Amino acid sequence: MKPGDVRIKPTELYSSLLTVFGPQDWWPARTGFEVAVGAILTQQTSWKNVEKAIRELRRKKLLTAKKLAIAKQPAIESCIRPAGFYKQKARRIRLLAQEFPRIRESAKKLKLPELRTELLELDGVGKETADSVLLYAFDFPILPIDAYTHRITQRIYGFDGDYEELRLFYESRLPRDPSILNEFHALLVELAKRNCWKKGPDCQSCPVMGECKPAGSKLK
DNA sequence: GGCCAGGTGTAAA
DNA sequence: TTTACACATGGC
Question: Exposed (0-12), middle (13-18) or buried (19+): which is A89, by Cβ within 10 Å?
Fold first, then answer.
């Protein structure tokens, strides 16, 4: 099966998931800056542990770009320890906080590709993180591709590709509408969390089980 | 006790 | 261009 050889269309997948799961109301953050911090924290880390880190940053009144930009490294580290890689992430969050005012201004002036380039220049901001910030903090029409999306794509469409291949595959088949892409990504995560690639072929809860390949396909 | 989680940067093959 | 590895805690 090739990328063009689609079983259920992404638009139909979107509709089914929205019907079954309902709106996911993402990203769980209060400000654009919090989106960016969460995006760093969630790298290779479960959202449960990110929540603990966010809560602690908030409790210590550190969860603003202004405060984090001048906070002591150990103060940040002690808050975010549950999210893992805490020394690395503390340094990167501090740098992010220092750059965020400039990024916010760029978001008003620049077009998507240019702003994306700026984000990618930040330490610790790779494609997924950059695209999450673009979509969930600044409302640009772009779809972040995470590990879940790779697995679901493998499962439903029977193929996997690199980051840009998957992003273009979905973006070219969905409306160029940030609210749709926002919801779509969130719904994929919800599906992935409940999904059955771990449970085997008997999974009854997955709304698109009939579209899935049998378990055991090579995952990327 | 082992494996993995909404990745990224660096260095070597 | 691809692959390997470090980074680290917490849940199951």
Answer: buried
